[in-house]
Predict the structure.
Amino acid sequence: MFNRRKFLLLSLFTLVNQILSFSSFASADSRKKITKFIPNTAEAVPAIGMGTWLTFDIGHHSDEVLSRIQILKTFLEAGGSVIDSSPMYGSAEKIIGICLQNIQGNPKIFSASKVWTPLQEHGKQQIENSFRLWGLDRFSLLQVHNLVNYKEHLQTLTKLKSEKKIKYIGVTTSHGNKHSLLIDIMNNEPIDFVQFTYNITHDEAEHILLPLANRKKIAVIINRPFDGGNLFRHTKNKTVPDWAKQANINTWSEFFLKFIISHPAVTCVIPATSKIKHMQENMQSLYGTLPSQSLRLRMKEYFKTLL
Ligand SMILES: NC(=O)c1ccc[n+]([C@@H]2O[C@H](COP(=O)([O-])OP(=O)(O)OC[C@H]3O[C@@H](n4cnc5c(N)ncnc54)[C@H](OP(=O)(O)O)[C@@H]3O)[C@@H](O)[C@H]2O)c1
């Protein structure tokens, strides 16, 4: 049956395609991009990626879809490539697929999704579904979300990796949860990536997780870099201190993101946003210099005075 809504949506996308022709990634920024190496392969990835929890779970409202196309386009044009999602994030994977279809120029992405179900067989179906929704025949990374049934899902992921349908495999946690199980997995399972929470106020990962990842040569993705947006509540009407500006840290977003990616064990951070302006601001952190260890300590101490 003729689906008028779908037709209107596609017409709108065609129009957007003409307006937002994906001309040139290379011309985005002439400054040197901050990249990190994945220890197992030495593949380089941009240190600022993009999360999609809540921000890309938008149902199917056409104006919202159009804005997400522009957000993703802004991210890619600014030099980003790592996109993190999950079947847990409602319509996010479907929206990513639609956005990718509607951005011209075949952008190079590092696709990272997850498997999130207690049942191994259901996990296999979930992964098939993720391939379909993203419109991919290969994922860069698949992770076991929140360590749910990680033993059986890691078997599935290992097989898919051997079949070259997935390049890397990993596991995730967040909010400081399940760290002792995570440490056990990092010590005993053949994972390429680990994902957990680390930010300027939640720095527990500095004690064991980050040094362990470094030792075991496991790449690290950091989630909740802004503590879900809460960090900005403490910086309202406050400007970045002059000593930070002298180190080329010009916004609070850059303060929080560069604090994270300057840790030597961190491979990539995945801030999420539903606003183009915030995406532009966040992507500034992909360029310039990184704070030294002494500056990182000063940043942490200073931020405590704002809490
Ligand atoms: N267990 C897991 O695997 C797990 C758990 C949690 C998260 N994650 C992943 O990590 C990603 C990031 O974590 P998160 O989404 O929880 O939190 P987050 O990235 O720390 O914070 C997102 C919030 O920050 C705001 N924000 C972003 N840029 C901003 C800016 N420049 N200025 C002011 N506000 C800004 C956003 O609001 P606006 O929309 O208004 O910009 C949004 O409300 C997730 O999206 C997801 O992909 C994974």
In short: Residues 33-304 form a domain with the TIM Barrel fold (CATH 3.20.20.100).
